[in-house]
Design brief:
Helix content is 0%, strand content 49%. By secondary structure, it is mainly beta.
Amino acid sequence: QEQLQQSGPGLVKPSQTVSLTCTVSGSSLTTTDYYWNWIRQPPGKGLEWIGGMSSSGTTYYSASLKSRTSISWDTSKNQFTLQLSSVTPEDTAVYYCARWSGSWGKGTLVTGSA
């Protein structure tokens, strides 16, 4: 059974970088045609796709966040990581990792605040 377990800080000071990790069990990051993603939902707003990575390691980013976003993976640990730099209060949201057409993590509330 596929499961995605998220980890990372809940409070980040403005201008700092937040790093969130998603550990996958029950499936492999490198399974052909699997796409691994980060999505967020600000309070009272809809879902926003941040970026993702294909099973071959190609990364894709939202145009609006590309300059501040980096997604990487560690296939030995079956983990992929989101780094979002220069955090502001507007980055406050619940962050999810997910596989398209598959499972989602439970979400991590990240608050950009001093």
